[in-house]
Design brief:
CATH architecture of the largest domain: Alpha-Beta Barrel
Shape: globular
Helix content: 25-40%
Number of helices: 14
Structural class: alpha/beta
Number of domains: 2
CATH topology of the largest domain: TIM Barrel
Order of helices and strands: EEEHEHHEHEHEHEHEHEHHHHHHE
Length: 376
């Protein structure tokens, strides 16, 4: 089946995007540094890491770094996750007051249930709690642009998907602007394949609502294929965007072709991977912005895993990956760039069997408390 409801300039409430793509929120990765580097390379819309409501309410310097945003970082959604309407609603207000264009409620992350409290994807099993949070946030922010992230179901039991539609009905009743649905169940986490058929079911139920799709988007070809074969309005690009800020310009270029269901082979035939100097420029920008946000020490720790992902496009990827693993400072980061990116040359496409170093991470994960970062 092909998609039939795909404006190339979709809207999220009052916001019009100039391309139907979004950079997802990924814990430990998608701070302002990652978002801005991607925006300079074609990303039209981005989302923060999922921020725990109780941590938002505590405040502190660590929080200020987590919710950092500036003029280059719009439109952007601030994402909040929690289990209690009385804490999620004021936490959402904090993000709204910080300047985020959209507030996204995370009902998608497959975190473990904490004692008797449901949060993230567990809302698909605790619908009354989810409904209460939806109403509390709307009451707290009556004029804000709100969205919700969900999964297609909690599990594959026959009645599980019904809860998705119960939540969606209330979402639209409360005039939320969009829903994002990850096409795996909560129990699947990130294993197995995403079932894109859910997008057709949602479109049949809600023909005129903004639908954001996610799941199994690892390349620009995957993103355009979702747009061309399902009725989603916007594609949410998560793991595929780590270390690949060019994925957005690549997707824009593929979207301009008449390929109905593009493959990675089509992508590689039509579009060149970033050159070594293009990679170097992105790497230098990324560390510089991260250092201004987090300080040199924390930026060094965060950027090691980012450098590993960037290294996939280098012709000597194993050695470059190892060099980034050993980075601790700006001086060491700069040394890697001088050694491995000094001379310009064509980049390479990562092999199809390249390991996914973030395969077990939650693209909708929680920060900072669940990463053992204490606000100060």
């Amino acid at each position: 089946m092909t998609g039939t409801h795909q404006p190339l300039n979709p809207r999220i409430g009052p916001i019009t995007l100039d391309a139907p793509f979004c950079q997802a929120g990924l814990a430990g990765y998608s701070d302002r540094a990652m978002r801005v580097v991607a925006r300079r390379r074609g990303c039209p819309y981005a989302v923060t890491e999922a921020l725990l409501d109780t941590v938002l309410l505590q405040g502190g310097k660590g929080l200020a770094n987590s919710i950092d945003i500036n003029d280059q970082d719009h439109p952007c959604a601030g994402q909040v996750i929690g289990s209690d309407p009385d804490t999620v609603a004021p936490a959402a207000r904090i993000l709204h007051q910080a300047g985020y264009d959209v507030i996204d409620l995370n009902f998608a992350c497959p975190v473990k249930k904490i004692k008797n409290k449901a949060r993230g994807g567990h809302m698909l099993r605790d619908v009354p709690r989810g409904l209460a949070i939806l109403r509390a946030v709307r009451d707290a922010l009556p004029h804000a642009t709100l969205t919700v992230s969900l999964r297609r179901a909690f599990d594959d039991q026959p009645d599980s998907q019904h809860n998705l539609f119960l939540l969606c009905n209330e979402i639209w009743k409360l005039n939320y602007a969009a829903v994002r649905v990850h096409a795996r169940t909560v129990e699947q986490k990130y294993a197995g394949h995403a079932d894109w058929n859910i997008f057709h079911q949602l479109r049949n139920h809600y023909p005129n609502r903004t639908l954001i799709g996610s799941g199994d988007i690892f390349s620009a070809a995957d993103a355009v294929r979702m747009l061309r074969t399902t009725p989603v309005d916007i594609v949410w690009i998560a793991r595929g965007a780590i270390g690949n800020p060019w994925i957005f310009s690549q997707a824009r270029a593929l979207l301009s072709t008449n390929l109905t269901s593009p493959t990675d082979h089509d992508l590689h035939a039509l579009i060149h991977p970033p050159t070594l100097h293009q990679q170097r420029d992105a790497l230098a920008e990324h560390f510089d912005i991260a250092m201004h946000i987090h300080g040199e020490s924390l930026a060094g720790r965060r950027m090691r895993k980012m450098g590993i992902k960037y290294a996939r496009f280098h012709p000597n990827a194993p050695d470059v990956k190892q060099a980034f693993i050993n980075v601790r400072s700006l001086r060491e980061w700069t040394s890697v760039l001088e050694q491995h990116y000094h001379t310009n040359a064509p980049g390479v496409w990562p092999p199809h069997n390249a390991p996914d170093e973030v395969n077990s991470s939650c693209e909708d994960n929680i920060t900072p408390a669940d990463n053992n970062i204490t606000p100060n």
